[in-house]
Amino acid sequence: MDPYPILKDVFGFDAFRPGQAEVVEAVAAGRNTLAIMPTGGGKSLCFQLPALMRDGVTVVISPLIALMRDQVRGLRAAGVEAHALTSGNTDDETEAAFAALHGGTCKLLYMAPERLAAGGTHRLLRAAGVGLIAVDEAHCVSQWGHDFRPDYLRIGELRRALDVPLAAFTATADAETRAEIVQKLFDGAGPDTFLRGFDRPNIHLAFAVKDQPRRQILGFAAARKGQSGIVYTGTRARTESLAQALREDGHSACHYHGGMEAEDRRIVERRFQQEDGLIVCATVAFGMGIDKPDIRWVAHADLPKSIEAYYQEIGRAGRDGAPAETLTLFGPQDIGFRRQQIDEGLAPPERRAADHGRLNALLGLAEALTCRRRQLLLYFGEDPAPCGNCDLCDKPAEVFDGTTPVRMALSAALRTGESFGAGHLIDILLGSETDKVRQRGHADLPTFGVGRDYDRRQWQAIFRQMMGHDLLRPDPERHGALRMTEAARPILRGEAGIALRRDTIRAAKSEPRIKTMVSEEDAPLLSALKAKRRALAEAQGVPAYIVFNDRTLIEMAERRPATLDQMAGISGVGAKKLDSYGRDFLTVITGAAEHVHPARAKLAGNDAGALYDRLMQVQSDLARGPDGTEKPLSCSASLLARVARLRPGDRGALERLLGQRYAERFADAFLDVLSDEERGSTPRA
Q: Which end of the chain is more exposed for a tag (fewer CB within 10 A), N or C?
């Protein structure tokens, strides 16, 4: 079966994104498949579209209940019979799902992995005629991964029990995790594997050293006024204080964390899905299960726990492919906090070592000297050229040889028994005779005062970068005292050098430039289109992006379609959505509704529509006969639409469609139009 008509009619796209077509072909053909694709790279379409090409039900296993509900709503809005069986279902939703399964109408069934432990699940799926298993977030099967879910280990058993193909998808899987997925889900038998890369080129990456972090977040949000965004923080209290500060600064903002009542969290989720321009300040759980494609920016007020977590969290932004931005703030306190979390955890030593490695990779990204995207993708096994879309490509870092000050700092740490934090060590290096320095006798050390060529702020930056390069680690058993790692010894012995970046603290502009998504000329229309989308979404009780996402509205504002045919050419406008919403948005664009017969409207966006228009013109010309003297006669719009759709190739077939009366008047002229259409030529005058 050709996937392109489904791609256009159901999903509203004329072409696949890079890498999608091959995955769709493999899954539709019933081959076991493993696809590693970037967040926002269109993973869901790679199992949703094959589900519509194959017989039977496709069961989709995902750990994210809110995401499942969003995808079900989106599919149903596009005319697809989809259901979910989750703990968040109402009784009516569960009954509807079972009825669709028993009635044979369900095409996609979403469920959480925990349901696989329930008795009768295998029997239910076998009876429903499941023909394909799709697994989202497949990295959750890895026991050494960053997001292990034990119930994922049951999926391989389900595949064997149903004896059907399985397609596994993830955005974050290094070579070790991929091998574990193959072993656990496919019993070690290599599936068709597609590594589509981890790059999200539409997302601008930026990091900044903390310097009044609240002011930094407020400035970042002010430059993006009216855009949906997420601010991730490390503590529940900070989500509330930042949300309050943003509201006081004129933004629509709310907080979200695990300490809130379940209903309060659901209210925030619904608001974020349905409102334009809302900012949510959240702990890391938020956004994992929300399929909102038009989040324009993500900021981290605190350093994430690992490079995988960072990649996943910034991946919430720009899933519609339109430009998006990120900002991650970090400082020495973040590094100490994350180290302490790992060291005080209950994981075995080898797991703690792996977690330190993941944190080191993130710190290397934070302290990068050249292109951040290249540094990020190198971690995932890619070797790209510099991206031109990160802060270090925008403005390269100032770099200096940090070998001498780093050796001074390491010497100070060792000579004080690795028993003190950065503040005391800096006092020693600067020659500051504080009470603590005098009481400990540290003014007599050879390192006392050797670092006066640098000021305190510069030393703070050096120590932070040393922690970022894992040369010094805070010791949680000694109140955060810095101890030297093995990685530092070659530098201390003079066997290796190190380059550091010179921190440049830039004052925030008092009037940040507002970043806009369209030209100044198109901005009013985009606002009007968003208002119409919001009104339609509220009336239907669905998230705004279920109607159309931002990228589709931007294209409408820029191209300004004037007819339903032109509207059908906008990316993201499928047949069902054109029928449901096309006239509403045309009215916003043109100021008046297009008066089109329903039979013609159903042909919008395809060749039959243009053929209908030519037949209608010929009919109008011949309504009173060739010489204009006969009694008026015309076919109904529905009859013309049938002719345009079926395209009869000879007079006999056309006469059977039209009937003798209409055939006598129009058949010859209609056949001329149809033959011109067949040859691909323009109609004769």
A: C
